[in-house]
Design brief:
The chain is α+β, with helices and mostly antiparallel strands. It has 3 domains: 225 residues, Uridine Diphospho-n-acetylenolpyruvylglucosamine Reductase, domain 3; 96 residues, Alpha-Beta Plaits; 92 residues, Alpha-Beta Plaits. It has 14 helices and 18 strands. A 7-stranded antiparallel sheet has the order 15-12-14-13-17-18-16, with helices on both faces.
Length: 482
């Protein structure tokens, strides 16, 4: 028997024959998450490694058994949720067993009184939202991948959604976790909103991409379903005027659930005067909660927008945006299935598009945008869109490379991310690190990366659980303290 056949046989004996997938055709689906060769990723030749097999645990006990087996066999385990992550956090870089949590998708408890939901990691976010809605509650976390992404995946990257301006990130909703550590032990943190009993251990796993342990249960804070919602859309003559309106809103204490400022094709009409740009600048707002709050926020937001030369586009425009906000995920899933049918990883040219999502001091957003647009023009990279999301400090750009030089985009993205770091910002605010940004993590964290690597070595000396993600690999330079 080959090594793969031996591993599959052992895992079937451990979990049962139906819980292990080894068919080569089915394994094709698991080769990639949202990190594709068409992105500006310098090491794209490493993408598309096929896992040894896929296992589907059904319980915490199954996960414990898998971790213990993996330690004895020195086989990497890679946790997999909905497969929508954009940074390669759910991919194997070589031989390894993927843990698909789709069979751990139970809603264990929902408490209207406690405003809590207890769920397994494979629960799809949209499924949880529907169950909460039936009980007069809402999850609040509302990413573009609502109908595909899972609770475990959202926790692993500390994801952010369209309604994050009011409800915060996924990690901010975590009250308690059950986690299987890399040695097979189970850790359970207390599901309370506040304690003062040392460091909050849940935080080690929020945004941890599974490298310190595998989440097998989560207790989440959920919210009353809003009594009302007001959707608004305003057009602004320039990005700076729209940004000023958004900044004033949050500055006076308004917290719209939805706050998105979009600028389409900013390089196509970039004027020579600093601060000018595209004429297609739209601010989308969604105020929700109890009726009096909604009306107060709507009134104040409209007044602020009008004071900054905003033109009210009417509720139909705002509704079209709101009800279409998840279509990108539907398109992503169709593309993934079509690629599988064609037997290809990606139909788009290598290194043809990418995006950045950086967190900046508010005072640095407009200067950063100007410098970024200038840098992209110099390098022949088209900025198709830029904007802010949920709050003024969170700035994004979508980039397109039409040249035949595939490294141009990777170099440009790195230059933009380091530019953000150099003004006191962070290179990523919602999608995690995975493998895509690992090469810049030491620059981001400094001695903090040494601390994380030390923790990894203590908890997972064999580097069995999701190795190489977050820059945490014993073979990575800088493993020893400087």
């Amino acid at each position: 028997m080959s090594d793969q056949e031996q591993a599959v046989a052992a895992l079937r004996a451990l979990l049962g024959p139906t819980q292990v997938i080894s068919d080569a055709r089915l394994l094709e689906y698991y080769k990639l998450d949202g990190l594709r060769p068409s992105r500006g990723y310098r090491d794209r030749e490493q993408l598309g490694a096929q896992p040894t097999c896929v296992v589907r645990p059904r319980s915490t006990a199954d996960v414990q058994a898998l971790v213990r087996w993996a330690n004895t066999q020195r086989v990497p385990l890679i946790p997999y949720g909905g497969g929508t992550g954009l940074m390669g956090g759910a991919m194997t870089s070589g031989e390894g067993v993927l843990l698909d949590f789709q069979d751990m998708a139970r809603l264990l408890a929902i408490s209207q009184e406690d405003h809590q939901a207890v769920v397994q990691p494979g629960v799809v976010l949209g499924t949880l939202e529907d169950a909460l809605h039936a009980r007069g509650l809402t999850l609040g976390h509302d990413p573009w991948t609502l109908g595909i992404a899972t609770v475990g995946g959202a926790i692993s990257t500390d994801g952010l959604g369209y309604r994050g301006g009011q409800y915060g990130s996924m990690g901010e909703q975590v009250l308690g976790l059950e986690v299987v550590l890399p040695n097979g032990m189970t850790l359970r943190t207390r599901a309370v909103p506040k304690s003062s009993t040392g460091p909050d251990l849940s935080q080690l796993f929020i945004g941890g991409e599974g490298v310190f342990g595998l989440v097998t249960e989560a207790t989440l804070h959920v919210f009353p379903a809003p009594e009302g919602r007001a959707l608004l859309a305003f057009a602004f003559p320039t990005f700076p005027t729209g940004f000023a309106a958004a900044s004033e809103m949050t500055g006076v204490g308004l917290r719209p659930a939805l706050l998105e400022l979009d600028e389409d094709e900013p390089t196509s009409t970039l004027a020579s005067t600093p601060g000018e740009g595209s004429q297609v600048v739209t601010l989308y707002l969604g105020c929700e909660g109890f009726r009096e709050l909604v009306e107060a926020q709507r009134t104040r937001a409209c007044a602020i927008c009008q004071r900054h030369d905003g033109k009210d586009l009417g509720e139909p425009v705002a509704q079209a945006f709101w009800y279409g906000r998840h279509r990108t995920a539907d398109r992503f899933q169709r593309e993934r299935l079509n690629n599988l049918k064609r037997g290809v990883l990606d139909l788009r040219p290598p290194g043809s598009f990418d995006y950045i999502h950086v967190a900046l001091p508010r005072s640095q957003v407009l200067p950063f945008r100007e410098r970024a647009l200038h840098l992209c023009r110099e390098r022949g990279v088209t900025v198709t869109q830029c904007g802010i999301w949920t709050r003024p400090e969170l700035f994004s750009m979508a980039l397109r490379n039409e040249s035949s030089h595939t490294e141009v985009l990777a170099d440009t993205v790195d230059a933009l991310l380091t530019m953000a770091q150099d003004v006191g910002g962070s290179m990523e605010y919602c999608h995690g690190i995975g493998v895509r940004l690992a090469h810049l993590l030491e620059r981001e964290l400094g001695a903090g990366l040494y601390l994380l690597r030390t923790l990894k070595q203590i908890l997972d000396p064999g580097s069995v659980v999701n190795p190489g993600k977050l820059g945490l690999s014993p073979a990575t330079p800088g493993w020893n303290p400087p």
